[in-house]
Specification:
By secondary structure, the chain is mainly beta. 0% of the residues lie in helices and 49% in strands. The strands form 2 sheets. Strands 2, 4, 5, 6, 9, 10 and 11 form a 7-stranded mixed β-sheet that branches. Strands 1-3-8-7 form a 4-stranded antiparallel β-sheet, with no helix packed on it.
Length: 124
């Protein structure tokens, strides 16, 4: 199982970024996929999750209406479209996967497989 997040960078407040989570060895139809972030000095927190087999999708309150999770089945990539970015969105973003979840979850302990993170910095 491999996951690799990419697409981070520096963006101004109000801007957009699209993160990608490239996966290998994961039948995406049956795994829950989650996006998480960790700001400097803070605990890792859940942002969004998705599970194709039952259509589960969930967002943290802090990103609802601004972030959208999606999937490219042919490429085995999960995306996180982030719009209307705020300075408080600054963090290292990670994707994670787990085959055991019924539905999806944005609880960090629920995920077994983790990828390397990608830095997102929102600043003027």
């Amino acid at each position: 199982v491999q996951l690799q997040a990419s697409g981070g960078g520096l963006v101004q407040p109000g801007g957009s970024l699209r993160l990608s989570c490239a996966t290998a060895g994961i039948p995406l139809d049956y795994y829950a996929i989650g996006w998480f972030r960790q700001a400097q000095g803070k605990e890792r927190e859940g942002v969004s999750c998705f599970k194709s087999s039952d259509g589960s999708e969930h967002y943290a309150d802090s990103v609802k209406g601004r972030f959208t999770i999606s999937r490219d089945k042919a490429k085995n990539i999960i995306y996180l479209q982030m719009n209307s970015l705020k300075p408080e969105d600054t963090a290292v973003y990670y994707c994670a996967a787990d085959p055991r979840l019924a539905g999806c979850s944005i609880r960090t302990p629920d995920y077994e497989y983790w990828g390397q993170g990608t830095q997102v910095t929102v600043s003027s």
